[in-house]
Amino acid sequence: MTTFVDQITLHLNAGNGGDGCVSVKREKFKPLGGPDGGPGGSGGDIVLVADPNTTTLLAYHRSPHRRSDNGGPGMGDYRGGTNGEELVLPVPLGTVVKTLEGEVLVDLTQAGDRFVAAEGGHGGLGNNGLANSKRKAPGFALLGTPGVERDLVLELKTVADVALVGYPSAGKSSLIAAMSAAKPKIADYPFTTLHPNLGVVDSGNTRYTIADVPGLIEGASEGRGLGLEFLRHVERCAALLHVLDCGTLEPGRDPISDLDIILGELEAYPVPEGQKPLTERPQLIALNKIDVPEARELAEFVKADLEARGYRVFLISAVSREGLTQLNYALGELVEESRAEVVAAIEASPRIVLRPKAVDRSGFQIRVEGGSYGNLYRVLGEKPWRWVQQTDFNNDEAVGYLADRLHKLGVEDGLFKAGAVAGSTVVIGTGDGVVFDWEPTMSSSAEIATPRGTDPRLDQLHRPTAKQRRADYLDRMDAKEEARQELRREGETGFWDVDAEIAEDAILADGTVDYDDEDGDFDDDHGVEVIQLRGESE
């Protein structure tokens, strides 16, 4: 049964965004109160968090498929959809996140480090959020965009200050158990340790961690044994401690030859760019098992040769704990020096400047691709692709809105410059994308019937103000008075035989005269003739 996993492939699918709502507010005495559709909720993100309480990737080895919650759809009465809950995945300190192609995305080395591995989809706006002074009643809403779906490789590299390297059964696990509170499995046969062990050691005012690399033998860098699989755990260590077995009974082995083989494997292991090679890091040598008389004699014999190579050599016994105090303080000094170098490098590193995106960036690019049936024009960019995902292509008004957005972004001008003509094939997005037969001016049946974003029912709700009603009343009274004055002037000149008092009844409210077409006379409300043409009547 697998108990330790340091590399897994994680399949992530973030939540989709909720669709916006199309709704018109209806209340008593307000049957058409305007658009009130709310936006959809955003899909939940999937976040990797470095957790010091998590020590292995075993949970993701057994369950590699992870999915976050979707966002809820928008609702009427301006109510927005619920946001999908964020999915937090704890990972051990020292987890490196990579793509399937091997590109390193992030290195989670500090407790609390967060990385958004997959972003949730955006919620679509409701028709209330799309309304403006020119688009008073949108008959559409934006769809929610799908969440990011991707595969990532998680690789665990143990975060330790000192790495213990050496042949199997050299006593590395026993040394960790003697110097710290770690309780690794210890037995008298090779390859007892099947995964790295960590221990925390106190050295005066310095606290550091040590880790052993199991199964390091000759040919480990080429895949023999378990060394190649676990050599990655040495990459982060500031110092190396070679644990050499002075009590081995295997023929052809001695501390000097063991050291040369281990150094050769460390030299052959490639480290990431920017890091020191393993053999160039500070190194100490511990000659172990001196509690055995023959081993002590051998250790004292080879100590001078090792010191002549420039190494600091310590004679120790993990069983009797002899020499561990001096070794502990020596390792603490190396760790302090390494930490000081790291701080100095950080202070000397150039300052990171975060600059906002340029306001004049177009946000898209057009790529011309040849094909069997002529050129294909591919529009690439985050905005155009997101807008296409948000469009309901069964709604003509929504398609027209997409055309307006692309035109304002400058896509049409870019297509013209790229050589596109009416009827050219345009693809938005990578891969299959969304294919259009491009027309320079996109219109829809909704635009022909009524302007996009308008509703004739809402136009009927226009009510004049009190000031407008008063002005209309005064205009009618002035027109009526002017008609009266005209009749009086004509009567005074003798052109009409007018009974002024009765003739006033023939003036309508709008200032016009009630004229009877049948007999050519002006009649009052009772049909009595009040005006006759002088000289022409019988």
Automatic annotation (TrEMBL):
Ranges of residues in domain Obg: 2-159
Cell location: Cytoplasm
Entries under InterPro entries matching the protein: G_OBG, GTP-bd, GTP-bd_Obg/CgtA, GTP-bd_prot_GTP1/OBG_C_sf, GTP1-OBG_CS, GTP1_OBG_dom, GTP1_OBG_dom_sf, OBG_GTPase
NCBIfam families for this protein: Obg_CgtA (TIGR02729), Obg_CgtA_exten (TIGR03595), PRK12296.1 (NF008954), PRK12297.1 (NF008955), PRK12299.1 (NF008956)
Source organism (scientific name): Mycetocola tolaasinivorans
Single GO MF descriptor: GTPase activity
Class of the enzyme per the UniProt entry, highest EC level: hydrolase
Residues at which Mg(2+) binds: 173, 193
GO annotation terms (biological process): ribosome biogenesis
OCT domain location: 356-440
Binding residues for GTP: 166-173, 191-195, 212-215, 288-291, 317-319
One cellular component (GO) term of this entry: cytoplasm
EC identifiers of the protein: 3.6.5.-
Role this protein plays: An essential GTPase which binds GTP, GDP and possibly (p)ppGpp with moderate affinity, with high nucleotide exchange rates and a fairly low GTP hydrolysis rate. Plays a role in control of the cell cycle, stress response, ribosome biogenesis and in those bacteria that undergo differentiation, in morphogenesis control.
Start and end residues of each OBG-type G domain: 160-336
Swiss-Prot/TrEMBL cofactor(s): Mg(2+)
Self-association state and partner proteins as the record states: Monomer.
Protein name in the entry: GTPase Obg
Protein keywords: Cytoplasm, GTP-binding, Hydrolase, Magnesium, Metal-binding, Nucleotide-binding
Family: Belongs to the TRAFAC class OBG-HflX-like GTPase superfamily. OBG GTPase family.
PROSITE patterns on file: G_OBG (PS51710), GTP1_OBG (PS00905), OBG (PS51883), OCT (PS51881)
